[in-house]
Design a protein that fits this description.
This protein is α+β, with helices and mostly antiparallel strands and 177 residues long. The chain is 16% helix and 63% strand. The protein has one helix at 2-30; strands spanning 37-55, 58-71, 73-85, 92-105, 108-115, 119-122, 127-139, 144-154, 157-168, 173-175. Strands 1, 2, 3, 4, 5, 6, 7, 8, 9 and 10 form a ten-stranded antiparallel sheet that branches. The longest helix is centred in the N-terminal third of the chain and has 29 residues, at 2-30.
Length: 177
């Protein structure tokens, strides 16, 4: 009987540790882990110009747009993208998109180059969603890095979430400035 109780106790402890470990890891990532800070807000974009090519039922689109950012990122942007629509017209795939952002992040001013692909536009209504990642920056944003996800809530209106951090390259460390 004592052996059964010990086995049952050990199994319960193992099960609880398996259940709680992912929660603790996710919780640690959400906050200021290695200088990370949450990033969120809106990005409203205005399509400017598109070049389209049609071949074998596919539509290939090369375009650009301008946008306005609020929240963690405050400023404006110009973006370029490449997308393709499948022959059925039910999915638009965006393998490449780059945002040239100018403005402020946490009170610091500069420019950023942000990748916003690969992404997919699907559903009814067809809305975009995908990842974003800061590739480089200038000015006070030179050492800013971050990434996250974005999704359209209605055409041309996007919500973004993720994390950002400033890296102190002299000390090879991240800080919370």
């Amino acid at each position: 009987m004592r052996k059964k109780s010990l086995v049952l106790l050990m199994c319960s402890v193992a099960l609880l540790s398996m259940l709680l470990t992912p929660t603790l890891i996710a919780d640690a990532r959400r906050f200021h882990h290695h200088g990370r800070k949450p990033a969120s807000g809106t990005w409203v974009f205005y399509p400017d110009h598109k070049h389209m090519k049609f071949e074998e039922g596919y539509t290939f689109i090369l375009g650009n747009e301008t946008g306005e950012w609020t929240g963690t990122f405050e400023g404006t942007d110009e973006a370029v993208f490449f997308a393709e629509k499948n022959p059925a017209g039910t999915i638009v795939y965006l393998p490449y998109g780059v945002i040239f952002f100018e403005g402020k992040v946490n009170g610091k001013t500069g420019t950023l180059r942000i990748n916003f692909g690969p992404a997919v536009k699907k559903g009814d209504p067809m809305l975009w969603s995908g990842p974003w990642e800061i590739l480089s920056g200038t000015g006070e944003l030179e050492n800013l890095r971050g990434q996250g996800t974005w999704w359209e809530t209605e055409p041309t209106h996007i919500i973004y979430e993720g994390w950002i951090r400033f890296k102190d390259y002299q000390n090879n460390d991240y800080n919370d400035d």
